[in-house]
Write a structure and sequence with these properties.
The chain starts with 8 loop residues before the first strand and ends in a 10-residue tail after the last strand. A hairpin with a 5-residue loop joins strand 10 and strand 11. The strands form 4 sheets. The protein has an 11-stranded antiparallel sheet with strand order 7-6-5-4-3-2-12-11-10-9-8. The relative contact order is 0.14. It is an alpha+beta fold and 495 residues long. Helices cover 22% and strands 39% of the residues.
């Protein structure tokens, strides 16, 4: 049996084992947030002053990255467009990420400041729908990667040795290009002060390993285009290839024997940003669907029942299983299970999306529901934890191990965790005895934050002996319902 572990892709985050996790580290390192180095050039000083007079702007950001190693090459392209009002802070950010030329993952975000509280609305699109999550933040630090004003202030203050290098029209604005560098010693201080070490630790790197990536950093070349009449910075470009290769070399050195025989090359990392619509963004309106999501967030799985209060009760909640046609589903049905009393109170129910078929089953307490059709089985429940989504998945996996499940060890994937959305999953494989026959299985263990200490937990299981012509359509609808890109396995991968 060769099914390929770790093939599930969370639409909230693209990550694929250690190589792609290192790729994520490189993207995280673009978030530089502080520096004290001054630049004496008169034009640069005037450019810094001009930023203080801006009230709003629109801008476009692009990042192209390509890395290779272990016989594979990963090319990732990120494009973003933003509208930004400085006081009080309001931002709209549309972003799309594509990997290896495949279709992109799209997100729309709205950041609003009110009375010193920052509310972030994030919409994740999977084609037919956009699912919104809402959170509060004390400041904009975690969003500074996409803050053009903050980035420009940083680069202008950190860069040195600027030299004029020609003139260029950007839109209808005449600009002068200046080329300079951010020196390696300044970069080390900037990256460390950004909190990147803590982010490395969250990805499983110890302090020694994360420190090694900051050693012997190369200078970062940067070009900035400044408006000739207003001194407003209109554009910047950075070729970060050599810098990221230097950091990658540090990471691999920190891994020691674990990296033996692995040669990861950074082929390209290029970042650019262009400003337009200066001081002309007058308002940013958060969509009604985002406002309605509430601070508990929402994913493809609803937090509460859609039934009018009083219509759903202990006697009838198991009788509402129907295809969710209002969501465009033919193969995925909507049903309901009980919610823990401590989660939503007495007599509350949760919506569940399961393969639509004849065999709908419940646990004795009504807290867990499952069904199967067209080669896919899904069970759903709600779990309490004092940890996070990763804790839920790891505990569920350990319970399966303790149960004596006949696991296929080489096909067990690592637990994946998205800190921004508190979502986690793990791909496993095992053999199951059915009517005296040993049958292969692949399962995705999935946990999604619903409210403090409570998580939706689902197990999505492939049963290859039941694959039929409707299996691909079923898989597609389940991917949509759970906001996951579930892998499509062929029967030949199991036998």
């Amino acid at each position: 049996m060769k099914i390929g572990k770790g093939e599930t892709i969370m639409k909230h985050q693209t990550g694929r084992r250690k190589f792609l996790r290192l790729l994520l580290m490189m993207a995280l390192c673009l978030c530089l947030t502080a520096c004290s180095r001054e630049n004496a050039q008169e034009t640069i000083e005037k450019a810094q002053e001009s930023l203080q007079n801006l009230t709003s702007m629109s801008y476009d950001i692009g990042m192209d990255m390509e890395m290779s190693g272990g016989g594979q090459t990963v090319a990732m392209s990120t494009t973003a467009s933003a509208d930004y009002i400085m006081e009080p802070a309001q931002m709209k950010l549309d972003m799309e990420v594509s990997m290896n030329g495949m279709g992109g993952m799209g997100t729309s975000s709205y950041l609003v400041e009110e009375n010193g509280i920052y509310t972030l609305y994030t919409g994740i699109s999977n084609g037919s729908q956009t699912y919104w999550q809402v959170s509060e933040m004390e400041n904009m630090d975690s969003y500074s990667q996409y803050n053009a004003e903050a980035n420009l202030e940083l680069y202008l203050s950190c860069a040195e040795s600027f030299q004029k290098n020609g003139e260029e029209l950007i839109g209808e604005t005449k600009t002068v290009r200046y080329d300079g560098i951010i020196a390696g010693d300044a970069l080390s201080q900037v990256i460390k002060s950004s909190g990147i070490s803590a982010q490395m630790a969250a990805l499983g790197l110890d302090e020694t390993m994360s420190d090694s990536m900051f050693e012997d950093l190369k200078d970062l070349p940067i070009s900035i285009w400044i408006a000739e009449d207003t001194y407003i910075p209109m554009k910047y470009e950075m070729d970060m290839t050599d810098l990221m290769q230097s950091m990658m070399t540090g990471i691999m050195s920190g891994l020691g024997e674990e990296s033996a025989g692995t040669d990861i090359r950074v082929n390209k990392v290029f970042v650019s940003m262009t400003i337009h619509n200066i001081n002309n963004v007058t308002s940013i309106e958060v969509p009604k669907d985002a406002l309605a999501a509430g601070l508990t967030g929402a994913s493809g799985l609803e937090d509460t029942t859609r039934i009018v209060p009083g219509e759903l009760n202990d006697q009838n909640y198991q009788s509402f299983f129907q295809p969710a046609q209002d969501l465009g589903y033919q193969y995925v049905g909507r049903t309901y299970c009980k919610a823990p009393t401590d989660m939503l109170g007495e007599g509350a129910f949760l919506t569940a999306y399961l393969p639509y078929g004849d065999a709908l089953s419940y646990s004795d307490d009504g807290l867990t529901v499952w069904s199967s059709a067209h080669g896919m089985q899904v069970s759903q429940t709600s779990l309490y934890t004092e940890g996070n989504a990763q804790t839920v998945v790891d505990q569920a996996y350990q319970e399966l191990v303790n149960s004596g499940l006949n696991l296929i060890e080489p096909e067990i994937g690592e637990t994946q965790y998205n800190t921004d959305y508190d979502i986690s999953y793990k791909q496993i494989a095992y053999y199951e005895e059915v009517n005296g026959e040993t049958l292969p299985r692949v399962a995705i263990l999935y946990a999604d934050y619903k409210q403090p200490n409570y998580y939706l937990y689902a197990q999505i299981t492939y049963m290859p002996e039941q694959f039929d012509d409707q299996y691909p359509a079923m898989l597609n609808e389940l991917s949509d319902a759970f906001a996951l890109s579930l892998p499509q396995f062929a029967l030949s991968q199991f036998y």
